[in-house]
Each structure stands twice: as C-alpha cells, then as structure tokens.
Design a protein that fits this description.
Blueprint (H helix, E strand, L loop, with lengths): L14 E2 L2 E2 L6 H20 L1 E4 L5 H4 L6 E3 L5 H11 L9 E5 L3 H12 L3 E4 L6 H13 L3 E4 L14 H9 L3 E8 L2 E3 L7 E3 L4 E6 L11 H17 L4
Helix pairs in contact: 1-4
C-alpha cells in the first residue's frame, strides 16, 4: 500500500513562500468519499428530475464556459444536475469546482473528483487568491466553474461577493442553479444540508446567463451581489 493511503492523519498545510498547501484526504477520508460517491450515484438513478423551461436550455449554453452557482445545501445533487442538464446538451463540456483547503474539504474534493469534476482547493478565508488564479486559468482552458456562493460557512442563502469577483475577473457569465427536492432529509448543520431520498421528484432551475462587467466600483459590485442573491432566492423553493 502506498504511503498516501496510510491511515495516519494528514499533516497541517505548510506555508512555502506564502503559498498555502491544502490538506490531502486521509485513508479514512478516501473510504468515506468513495461511500458518498456510491450513495449519490445510487440515489440519483432513482430520482425523477424535471427541468424548468427545458426549451431554453440550449440557448443558455451558447456562450461557452460559464460559472454555475448553487447553494451549499444542494451540493449533493449539484454535479448530477450538471451531468444531466448541461453535459446532456453539450457532452464535451467539463467542470472545475471550489473545495475548501481544510481537512473536510479534502474529502469533498475527492468526492467531486470521483464524479468527474476537477477540484480547486481554496475558500474566502484560506488560499482564496490562489484558488481564484487557478479558476481563471481553467476558465481559459474551457472549463465551466462551479461555486457555492454562501459557502463554506454561511450564513445560509446569503450570497457572498466572491462569485461577483470571479465573474468580473474571468469574464464568464453566471448561471444560477437550484433544485427543489420533494422528499429529503436535512442535516442539523448551518446550511441545513439536503439529502435527497430515493425516488423523489426533483424540480430543476437554471437561469439565463448573467454577465458582470469587469470595471465595477465597490458600490456597483454590491448592487450586482444583491441582485444575484435576490434572483437565487426566487428559485430557492424549500
């Protein structure tokens, strides 16, 4: 067995010339990630999806790569929505997603990697600037970018300014995404994380592309942030 698979806890990230090295998943974290991956795939197979305004979907994807924003508590289905309603229209598309540089983020990064998404490690509090640079590079390579605008710690349903900055820096349009899961469990976490139950109906919402100008001042950025939050809440049906 390779050393990286040893059940020894991962060391704390080291700083080298100001660069924060993200945690790697532990052996236990890898096993848990595999279990979560299999559970998501199994439940997804039974769900009954219905896309809102499906006739508009192809039009929404005409501009090439985009930033997909979905609330943190809907992460369980976020990648499956991308597979079903984005790659189904344009199979050549590929996605990169932000995952925290923390130890918990290491497990999440492994889950999304198993689901076919390229993880980028960072958050607003740790390794944020580095993650932004990496996301910009991947956008130039044709990747769609996925973010949870109220993550990683909330408050729930309050859109943070990071997604506005990412859109301004990359020039990519934002597509707001959400889903209404009829049958679900909710975890006692800050975001009331949603766990879909098998065979549940799922209503899916994906917005029209929203562009953010590059040269916004602070006041204009706040206006854009508030408008995005308002639009996200309009498609957030709990």
């Amino acid at each position: 067995m390779m050393a990286e698979d040893s059940p020894v806890p991962a060391p704390r990230p080291k700083r080298t010339s100001g660069v924060v090295v993200p945690h790697k998943p532990t052996f236990t974290g890898r096993l848990l990630a595999r279990t979560i991956f299999l559970a998501i795939r199994s439940v997804d197979f039974t769900l009954r999806y219905r896309l809102d305004q499906p006739d508009r979907m192809q039009h929404r994807l005409l501009d090439g790569p985009a930033i997909f924003a979905i609330w943190h508590n809907r992460l369980a289905l976020s990648v499956m929505l991308y597979h079903r309603f984005v790659q189904a229209f344009q199979p050549e598309r590929k996605m990169a997603a932000i995952a925290s540089a923390s130890r918990d983020g290491a497990m999440l990064a492994r889950v999304i990697e198993l689901l076919g998404v390229r993880p980028v490690r960072g958050s607003s509090s740790r390794r944020g600037a580095q993650a932004l640079l990496e996301m910009g590079t991947l956008a130039d390579q044709g990747y769609d970018l996925a973010v949870t605008p109220d993550g990683p710690r909330g408050p729930r349903y309050q859109l943070q300014p990071g997604v506005v900055g990412l859109a301004a820096a990359t020039g990519l349009p934002i597509l707001l995404a959400s889903c209404q899961v009829a049958w679900k469990k909710q975890a006692p976490s800050w975001d009331r994380f949603q766990i879909p139950l098998p065979f549940s109906p799922v209503r899916v919402f994906i917005s029209e592309p929203i562009r953010v100008p590059r040269d916004l001042n602070e006041k204009a950025r706040e206006e854009v942030r508030a408008d995005l939050e308002r639009r996200m809440l309009q498609i957030t049906l709990d």
